[in-house]
Amino acid sequence: MTRAPRPDFLVIGAPKAGTTALHAALAQHPDVFVSDPKEPKYWLCDGAPPPAWRGPGDKHSQQEWIWRADRYFSLFEPAAQHQVRGESTPFYLWSRGAHRRIGEDLPDVRLVAVVRDPVDRAYSNWMHLWSDGLEPEADFVTAFDHEAERVRAGWAPFWRYRELGRYGEQLAHLHRHVDPERILVIRYRELVDAPGATVDRVSRFLGIREGMVDSIPRDNSRSFVPPGWRPRLFGPVVRGGATLGQFAPPQVWRAIHPLSLGLLGDHPDAHRPRLDAATRQRLIESYADDIGLLGELTGQDFGDWLNPESRGSFAQRSGSVTRLGERDGSRTERAGRPARATREVSARR
Fold first, then answer.
1. Is 298 helix (H, G, I), strand (E, B) or coil?
2. Which pLDDT does position 312 carry in this prediction?
3. Which of 19-28, 71-80, 238-247, 311-320 is predicted least confidently?
4. The predicted structure's pLDDT at residue 26
5. Cis peptide upstream of residue 37 (ω within 30 degrees of 0)
6. C-alpha to C-alpha distances, 318 to 55, 187, 195, 256, nearest whole angstrom
7. Distance of alpha carbon 246 from alpha carbon 216, whole angstroms
8. For 135, what's the count of Cα atoms within 13 Å in the CB-facing half-sphere?
9. Can you give the pLDDT at residue 8?
10. Other CB atoms closer than 10 Å to residue 240's CB: what's the count?
11. Where are the alpha helices (H) located in the chain, listed in sequence order?
């Protein structure tokens, strides 16, 4: 019997927590079909276009949201009969409306929630937007503290550096609409430190074969653009271009946008500075209660997130591609080897 075109699983979690890397790894699995685009964002909408977000670049990015049911479900039509079908929109964990819609319309769907140290996630989120030329604030902590002001001004969810990392309260709400047995919570550090065991764990959860994926691509990270005269001079140009981008088709903007990286300077090997312990400790206070709640809901220990020492970015910790040959979860690295999956320029929303 032909199956109705609809997803069997959703990769959710948080932006900059490794969902792109997991999506790309699953895309290599012969028993999996993943959507193109990676992040349709359909369940964020309610049969209507997305809200008119007003942050830098928000209007352009909304052109890529798929909110019509016919367009969304047709994404899964090319899947083979034996393949499980899925898509990866991290914002589904954050969105209370998405929880209700998913629970009502996808009663059998399985959810894989990827979570990351919330302070490191927020810092990576800020750096992504800063290095794209869209974040006007050169200091991460200042931008973090501006969240309430930006929410009131109608900026899109990706600017909510603090709120996106409160996974405990998000998961608690999700449990009201989706059976916890159909939700698998995995950690960013597991993808980096034990990729083979982690992908196999996801495969078991989805009911597909283990040991079929031999590499995990680097996540969609940006090279760090240090503050200086280039971002001060050209950042407003990039943000102005992003505003004009709302009037251009997405494929045209994607072809032009990489120029912004050149305007801001070419730093292909630059890593963002690690947060000092005092700064991390201050920011941890925004999450301490929620980290405890997440531990209660999952039965996992997230106490390491309370440590004021940062472990660094995906690239710093794993190299370009991490091999999955060690099935016991240990890893070997082949730094410099290019990832087999294409990095998505549009993955920032």
1. helix
2. 60
3. 238-247
4. 95
5. yes
6. 33, 15, 10, 30
7. 33
8. 29
9. 98
10. 12
11. 19-27, 58-61, 69-74, 96-105, 118-131, 140-145, 147-152, 167-174, 188-193, 195-206, 229-244, 250-256, 259-264, 277-284, 288-298, 314-318
Region 216-240: mean pLDDT is 54
Cβ-contact 17, 119 below 8 angstroms: no
Which domains, and CATH codes, for the chain? 9-338 (3.40.50.300)
Q: Are 227 and 270 in contact (CB under 8 A)?
A: no
Name which of 26, 183, 187, 43 is nearest 115 in CA terms.
187
Distance CA(136)–CA(342), nearest Å, equals: 28
pLDDT higher than 90, residue 63: no
Better-scored residue on pLDDT, 72 or 60:
72
Q: Which tokens in the block code for residue 235?
A: 């950042």
Tokens representing residue 49 in the block: 């276009």
3-state secondary structure of 50: coil
Q: Is pLDDT of 343 > 80? A: no
- C-beta of residue 218 within 8 angstroms of C-beta of residue 314: yes
For residue 77, pLDDT beyond 90:
yes
How many other CB atoms sit within 10 Å of the CB of residue 154? 12
Q: Which helix (H) or strand (E) holds 60?
A: helix 58-61
* Residue burial 264-303, b: 16+ Cβ < 10 Å; e: rest: bbeeeeeebebbeeebbeebbebbeebbebbeebbeeebe
Task: Write out pLDDT tens, residues 262-276.
Answer: 444 555 445 667 888
Residue with token string 């990351």? 116
Report the predicted TM-score, pTM, of the whole model to 2 decimal places: 0.79
Q: How many CA atoms lie within 13 A of 10 on its CB side?
A: 28
